[in-house]
Amino acid sequence: MSLADKIRDLEEKTSNLMKGGGDAAVAKQRSQGKMTARERIDVLLDSDSFRETDLFARHRCTDFDMAEKEIPADGVITGFGTVDGRKVFVYSQDFTAAGGAMGAGTAKKICKIMDMAMAAGAPVIGIIDSGGARIQEGVDSLSGYGQIFFRNSRMSGRVPQISVIAGPCAGGAAYSPALTDIVIMVEKTGKMFITGPSVIEVTTGEVVDEEELGGAFAHASVSGVAHLTASDEKEALRKAASALSYLPSSDRDRVPYSFYAEEDESRPALEEIVPDDERIPYDMKDVIAEIFDKDSFFELQPLFADNLITGFARLGGLSVGVIANQPYSLGGCLDISASVKGARFIRMCDAFNLPLVNLVDVPGFMPGVDQEHSGIIRHGAKMLYAYSVAEVPKFTVILRKAFGGSYLAMCSKDLGADLVLAWPAAQIAVMGAEGAAGIIFRREIAGAEDPEAKRAEMVEMYKEKFETPYPAAERGHADMVIRPRDTRSELLTASELFAKKAGAGVNRGNMPL
After folding, report:
1. 10 Å Cβ neighbour count for 26?
2. How many angstroms separate the CA atoms of 365 and 475, rounded?
3. Percent of the chain, pLDDT > 70?
4. Under a CB-based contact definition with an 8 Å cutoff, are residues 389 and 374 in contact?
5. CB burial class (10 A; 0-12, 13-18, 19+) of residue 173?
6. Could you tell me which residues come within 8 angstroms of residue 331 by beta carbon, excluding any fewer than 6 positions away?
């Protein structure tokens, strides 16, 4: 056979394999509103940048008449390309080929891509659409999942890992996305659960459908597994690309910077957003919009634990992580869900050298028997730990309330904040004046002719003495007391001042302990 004949043979084999599971399977995939595995890669990556690996991989299972069964590319498309000019590695499960089921060869392909990403120092994006383990391969398929979990864990904090759930992701397979940095779920088609509805009904008697159990909204708002949802696959892939734009390609690379020029960094609007009456809530996102570069805030987990805001933003073009209390939800209190959410985000930012900007208006940890018995002490400590070990620049702005342990948990000077800025209305104290006065002046109030008037008098006295930023500033717990309008300019100065501070790689990983 001549070289020309061999080239024609290569082209024919390649063409056949790239058709996936066949016309009928592709048509069924599209009828469900889903793209094919290759179409997803084409949407994600820059045009003509994809280079496929292991196209000719074949399964080696011989049991249950599998020897004669062809599974194109062994059910997963793997390779590398670029997103906005940056190299990335990608795998996309092909549901049209035997349901994208995971076999030993399938796992080997995915593991190879992950190993290449680690060696190259580049992100990995996994597009999930699989019926689960290839049962015919028995324990070999389970071993494959284990090998992927191992790599997810070892890669954590080394290169960004993003999972896009575009179809089913059931059983043990669901643990792989949970080990990655960012999980994006496609509404209606994306499903994740360890145990399906039918098994749950048999074992517990509970009746639930797949969407309610493991759909995008359930995981974005209730379980906290999903960071983002998308109305369709194209939006999900665009969000994956946007998230990558804030992250370096690896922990060895510099934080991304986008040119941004602003003639006047003063933000007078910041002096109008926070009400004088501390009992009146406001939207912290309005504050975020004023401080950071215009339209640069990229929120993560907006539907889960919305009393704590987390996300990426740009400050003078520099990517930073933002953590902020949200007075509109639970008064901005920290509870178990917020603590876990915050701790994991802090650790991801620390792993990838993103400076942390903390906007504080927190009245305390959420009280209640359920919170105590469910482990608020254990989970709340995760934020204390995450901030304490984070080695990236940490800047804290106290807008209004900063009480008790929650003041510490929002990155106080004692937990390693490099710069603490306080607004003139900041209240930094062990607790609010009402509670404190009732304890400190209990006897005076009880013995007064008019206890209520005496209580009001003591509350005002406590506020004047302690609920201001100046005692904290006098003792060095706040570095500066500033006008709100100067917040952005002071943070810009701080980011330049601490530009050379970066983590030493001691506490890598995105998972809170």
Report:
1. 18
2. 24
3. 88
4. no
5. buried
6. 281, 307, 363
Task: Give the tens place of pLDDT for each residue, 208-219.
Answer: 999 999 999 999
Q: How many residues does the chain have?
A: 513
Q: Which of 344-348, 391-395, 444-448 has the lowest mean pLDDT?
A: 444-448
State the Cα–Cα distance between residues 351 and 158, nearest whole angstrom. 7
Nearest-5° Cα angle at 151, 223 to 227 = 25
C-alpha dihedral (392, 393, 394, 395), degrees to nearest 10 = -160
Alpha helices in 98-209 (DSSP H): 104-120, 139-155, 175-178, 197-204
Alpha-carbon distance values, 359 to 262, 372, 409, 462, 496 (Å): 22, 26, 12, 24, 19
The better pLDDT of the pair 376, 12 is held by 376
Contacts of 96 (CB under 8 A, 6+ apart): 20, 21, 22, 25, 26, 28, 29, 36, 37
Query: What distance in Å separates the CA atoms of residue 235 and residue 388, rounded to the nearest whole number?
Result: 36
Handedness of CA 461, 367, 228, 389 (dihedral sign): positive
pLDDT of residue 105: 84
Containing 181, the helix (H) or strand (E) segment is none
Q: How many Cα neighbours within 13 Å face the side chain of 2?
A: 3
Question: Whole-angstrom Cα distance, residue 282 to residue 286?
Answer: 8
First CA to last CA across the chain, in angstroms?
Answer: 61
From the list 170, 173, 56, 38, the residue with the least C-alpha distance to 109 is 56
Check if the beta carbon of residue 430 is closer than 8 Å to that of residue 467.
no
Give the predicted TM-score (pTM) of the model: 0.92
**Residue in this structure with the two tokens 């793209």, named with its chain if needed:** 35
For residue 391, which amino acid is it?
A: E
Task: Enter the tokens of residue 184.
Answer: 């994006």
Q: Which region holds residue 84: left if phi is over 0, alpha if psi is between -120 and 50, else beta?
A: left
pLDDT tens sequence across 85-143: 999 999 999 999 878 888 888 999 999 999 999 999 999 999 999 987 776 666 877 88
